[in-house]
Amino acid sequence: MAKTKSAYFCQSCGYESAKWLGKCPSCNEWNTFVEEVIDKGSANIPTWKSASGTQRLSKPSKVEEIQSATEERTSTGDLELDRVLGGGLIAGSVILIGGEPGIGKSTLMLQLALNVTGKKVLYVSGEESEQQIKMRAERITANPKADCYILTETSTQNIFKQIEQLEPEIVIVDSIQTLHSSHIESTPGSVSQVRECTAELLRFAKETNTPVFLIGHITKDGAIAGPKILEHMVDTVLQFEGDRHHIYRILRSIKNRFGAASELGIYAMQSNGLREVSNPSEILLSQRDEELSGITIGATLEGARPMLIETQALVSIAAYGTPQRSATGFDTKRMNMLLAVLEKRCGFRLSAKDVFLNIAGGIKVEDPAIDLSIMAAIISSHEDIFISSKICFAAEVGLSGEIRAVNRIEQRISEAEKLGFEKIFISNYNLKGLNKDKFKIQIVTVSKIEEVFSLLFG
Ligand code: TYD
Ligand code: MG
């Protein structure tokens, strides 16, 4: 019998070592090394390559001689997903979808399987039984022309056998952590298993030009479980996020070899599956009848799509010694910086105040163009003066209180105009090359934070 070969793997980052280590030299975590058998020594177990019988020999080619293929994109039947992928599905691409349990990853994928037209889809599930999937499928509105097959299997070798017979045009794997390959002896979900199964599926995808979706679990701090190299191996990494208690879900691209990263898709989870939300600003702006202080609207950009988002601030006298600062949907450090600017440059006494900040709709905003809107909301709450709901903001604020330019200002202005806003505050520096006459909305340009407040509150 051939000798078995094993190594120690850091379960946190995937670092490989020949001997056990207390502390991982790569990610500095303690006590994360676990022994895993990496090679059972049996070379004759078929992988995707030898099962298909052909082994292609690659030769170097001159760049000019390589035929440029126009990348063909197929629609997934889901416009939000198409956009997040960069305009549709590319043949042979491997897409990893991560997200918290119960957020709707399986629903999203099954919905895709049941709605894509003219493609044979194989949905491989290692998590649920055929009956459970059928029950879910009955809730979802399906395309009558769908050609969807379900396979409940966890061994990659068996999956490849079925794939060879069925010849699907799209493969979905739910989830990568439940698969195991007989080339590796460690348990499903361990670093070496996840890596090997992904590598086998990757090889299959590239050789047959079949797109493969992988569902991945995430760890308690939100990273995709398994080694970080998993994210390097695949072409696209999508994150499905949202608050389970809210109906809105956000699909975000974190990495995309075939499109823009940070593209965003929005869904609403309903009793009959996920519904695409094509006009997000409508849901992100709460309908209010009366004017309240502490609420402003920022014109942000997520990926290529402009979105008007409501920011809410509450400033109150700190009842206990240390003032509390908390932000939902926005970086707390950045909020503290903005508060320091307000204190130092504008003389607002905020150091003894509790400040709470909330971005509506459970959305996380990273676009710095929301800065001005946040500062205006804080001051509006602090002074208890409302800001008209017809005003919105799009500018970054620097440490000296200067109002800085943001990218794609025209797109933001047109979105605000389309949604019926009457006034938008932007930076002076954004004026260059901007055709102001094109817009009906009043464009107010400012260069210092003090100017904004004197214009708003007189
Ligand atoms: P699921 O896809 O199982 O999540 P994941 O695979 O990410 O763990 O989603 C399950 C949740 O979605 C569950 O709480 C029920 C809800 N749901 C609906 O609200 N409507 C539906 O039509 C379906 C299928 C699920
Ligand atoms: Mg699931």
Automatic annotation (TrEMBL):
RecA family profile domain segment(s): 70-218
Segments carrying motif RadA KNRFG motif: 255-259
SUPFAM superfamilies: P-loop containing nucleoside triphosphate hydrolases, Ribosomal protein S5 domain 2-like
Region (Lon-protease-like): 354-458
Biased composition (Polar residues): 49-58
Keywords: ATP-binding, DNA damage, DNA repair, DNA-binding, Hydrolase, Metal-binding, Nucleotide-binding, Stress response, Zinc, Zinc-finger
Composition-biased stretches (Basic and acidic residues): 61-73
Name listed for the protein in its UniProt record: DNA repair protein RadA
Lineage, broadest ranks: Bacteria, Pseudomonadati, Bacteroidota, Sphingobacteriia, Sphingobacteriales
Primary gene name: radA
